[in-house]
Write a structure and sequence with these properties.
It is a single chain. By secondary structure, the protein is an alpha/beta fold. It has a single domain, classed as 3-Layer(aba) Sandwich (Undecaprenyl pyrophosphate synthetase). It has 7 helices and 6 strands; from the N terminus they run E-H-H-E-H-E-H-E-H-H-E-E-H. A 6-stranded parallel beta sheet has the order 3-4-2-1-5-6, sandwiched between helices. Helix 4 links the parallel strand 3 and strand 4. Helix 2 packs parallel to helix 3. The longest helix is centred in the middle third of the chain and has 24 residues. The protein binds 3-methylbut-3-enyl trihydrogen diphosphate and magnesium ion (MG). The site of 3-methylbut-3-enyl trihydrogen diphosphate (IPE) has 12 residues, from helix 1.
Length: about 240
């Protein structure tokens, strides 16, 4: 592909449940296939040379799903963290997990901490999983941190700018997404990377997430190349 690569691709992985329902399978089967698609997508991103990949796996609102489904998803996360990290590390990938960790079981928090620590020095692929994540909560937390710094006299409120704000988001050390993909035909942002995606090119894919693969990632890159990004200036 003689095209420019986006530095950072963000994906809302949606449609596991509908993929399963279309096959008469339980939702859990859709989530298991979704985890396979995640694995393929990470490999594909690595092969294409994409440096930053951020995936929305579980929103702060998803905690409201039936207990059994939340348990299934947490089980998959636990399994993923146990079985995939050594491989990711071997491939030179760095894992970050963004979101509210206070709601995870302690063993999951420990697995996340260990995975982040192990892969901290890697930079070939920066893989970020958004789990128990909500962009409004993230933005509110950044505002709260700035307010606390100002109230304590550590910063001058007049010094607060977009840079100071972004430095207090979970994604402080990540570039903004260039491409924002959502699968399953839904055309919503659903509280994912709201601040960071200010200038992202939105790409909506009709396929359900378990059917998404490297070819779809390449299609999204081609679509990104067809768009003219002006960042508010004149083309
Ligand atoms: C995406 O698939 C995975 C999660 C949000 C955990 P869904 O579970 O949202 O699947 P649909 O939208 O019901 O098809
Ligand atoms: Mg959904």
């Amino acid at each position: 592909m003689s095209t420019a690569l986006p530095t950072h691709v963000a994906i809302v992985m949606d449609g596991n449940g509908r993929w399963a329902r279309a096959r008469g399978l339980p939702r859990a089967a859709g989530h298991r296939q979704g985890a396979e698609a995640l694995r393929r997508c990470i490999v594909g991103a690595g092969e294409l040379g994409i440096r930053y990949l951020t995936l929305f796996g579980f929103s702060s609102e998803n905690w409201n799903r039936p207990f059994g489904e939340v348990q299934d998803l947490m089980g998959l996360l636990r399994h993923y963290l146990r079985s995939e990290i050594a491989d990711l590390h071997g491939k030179g990938a760095r894992l970050r997990v963004i979101g509210d960790r206070t709601r995870f079981d302690p063993d999951i928090v420990a697995l996340i901490d260990n995975a982040e620590e192990l892969t901290r020095g890697n930079d070939l692929l920066n893989l970020t999983l958004a789990i128990s994540y909500g962009a409004r909560d993230e933005i509110v937390a950044a505002a709260r941190a700035l307010a606390a710094d100002a109230a304590a006299g550590r910063i001058d409120p007049k010094s607060i700018d977009a840079h100071a704000f972004q430095a207090r988001l979970f994604t402080a050390d990540l570039p903004d997404p260039d491409v924002f993909i959502r699968t399953s035909g839904e055309k919503r942002l659903s509280n994912f990377l709201l601040w960071q995606s200010a200038y992202a090119e939105l790409v909506f894919v009709d396929k359900y997430w378990p059917d998404f693969g490297k070819a779809d990632l390449e299609d999204a890159v081609r679509e990104f190349n067809r768009r003219e990004r002006r960042f508010g200036a004149v083309g």
